[in-house]
Amino acid sequence: MxxxxxxxxxxxxxxxxxxxxxxxxxxxGIPIIFLWLGLKNNSSDRxxxxxxxxxxxxxxxxxxxxxxxxGAKINLSxxxxxxxxxxxxxxVADKNSTYRTHKYFSQYSKDRNRITRKLNNSEPLTYExxxxxxxxxxxxTLVIGGGKLNTYKFDxxxxxxxxxxxxxEKWRKRL
Length: 175
What we know:
The chain is an alpha+beta fold.
């Protein structure tokens, strides 16, 4: 099924439709993938529409669940965090950066704590949240007030093909 902003794959076009996948195009024409996957980071039998990040090289992440649209809350968070990651990376690279103020370290610490809680609760993380946790900010712990921080390295992503296969399998069971 197609509309002005998306292509949906599945059966039916009503609220009781059994859908499997959707390509949704944002206002810039960039495709966003949604797959109907299990809740609780794909560990539940109950399914919902999951927003998928991909690098289009086969790597993917389940970023969160969105009932309709593109997920304005996820989009806003991704944009905000993307800017913060850029600033923190500049601070790490340039000791004389104009961003080296307590304001940025304080916000980094708050973001980091929130994202770490999500990670510890096995909640989906966006690509930008993973990027923020990968920043090695240990030289700044005195500035933000704290001990040694864990620096995470996310070198494992889900397979885009694997997520598509899971969505197809769940869809077939519902037919």
